[in-house]
Amino acid sequence: MSRAPEIHVLPDETAVATEIADFLAWSCADTLTRRPLFHLVLSGGSTPKALFHVLASPAWRTKLDWSRVRVYFADERAVPLDHADSNYGAARAALFAPLNLPDAHISRIQGERPAADAAHDYEQMIRKNLQDGSSNDLAFDVILLGIGNDGHTASLFPGGAELDERTRLVVESASPSGIRSRITMTYPLLNRGRVVLFHVVGVSKAAMVQRVIDLAGGAPPVPAARIAPTNGRLLWYLDEPAAAQLAATRRQRPSDEA
Ligand code: 6PG
User: Fold this and answer.
1) Atom 7 of ligand 1 has which residue's CA nearest to it?
2) Sign of CA dihedral 178, 47, 247, 234
3) CB under 8 Å to 205, separation ≥6 — which residues?
């Protein structure tokens, strides 16, 4: 039985990015007291750029022990890494390069290869890196996700066959717009996360945020509504515009801060 979402509403995009950076710093330090590495999954799209900017800034760049952080991607577009639409390319420019992170610490989805092959090999790499025989097998420490205006998350799109995947951890999928061919983590992997954190800003997302949080995703439930960590925490970090249609009772009050 998954736990109720923990919803944090901040005034604006910069405040959201700063709060998420603060959470990542805490979560990384806490994890490293118990395990050798902090396994972090990045979302694609444009929203994370504000977070990358904070994490790479002089005030924040040493707040995570990046030498013990391993970075993965929730999804990728089927394009070469230097393509303008590459999620890896965006993260490399805004975060990895400014922090001088070693390539060996970043697990890139090889978007330049046939999507099915790239998906298969990414899954094998994840199984090798995270399979430790514990009850928390294949559990990333923090998974960052965004949400599209159609309710997609990662590259899990409404009506896609990937929504019914029960065994594979990474599959190919198809976007209805933009770069059609995608590679994406699936619910069996995403819902193993110790923490799954939705990072959503902007008034354009307000209706979908309400549908997912207040209406359990609507009928049929949109893909983002089927993110329900089995044993982990589900966090939403929203700016005021993105939270504008949420029921007041849903919004975490500062006194509720854990
Ligand atoms: C991608 C993302 C996707 C993204 C949403 C929101 O590869 O596009 O993984 O799921 O998070 O589409 O995108 P924006 O942050 O650009 O609004």
Assistant:
1) 44
2) positive
3) 147, 149, 242
Distance from residue 36's CA to the centre of ligand 1 (Å): 30
User: What are the residue ranges of helices labelled H in the chain?
Assistant: 13-32, 48-55, 87-91, 97-99, 115-130, 187-190, 206-214, 240-243
Query: What residues are paired with 75 via a beta bridge?
Result: 184
Å from CA of 161 to ligand 1 middle: 19
Report whether 182 contacts 254 (CB < 8 A): no
For the stretch 40-95, pLDDT in tens is: 999 999 999 999 999 999 999 999 999 999 999 999 999 999 999 999 999 999 99
155-166 pLDDT, tens digit each? 999 999 999 999
User: Is there an atom of ligand 1 within 6 Å of 223 CB?
Assistant: no
Cα torsion 40, 115, 173, 89 to 10°: value is 50
Residue 114, C-beta contacts closer than 8 angstroms, at least 6 positions apart: none
Classify 203 as helix, strand or coil: helix
Task: Verify whether ligand 1 is closer than 6 Å to residue 43 (CB atom).
Answer: yes
Residue nearest atom 8 in ligand 1 by C-alpha distance: 45
Atom of ligand 1 nearest to the CA of 153: 10
pLDDT tens column, 205-256: 999 999 999 998 888 999 999 999 999 999 999 999 999 999 877 776 554 5
Instruction: State which ligand 1 atom lies nearest to the alpha carbon of 156.
Output: 10
Helices (H), 59-171: 87-91, 97-99, 115-130
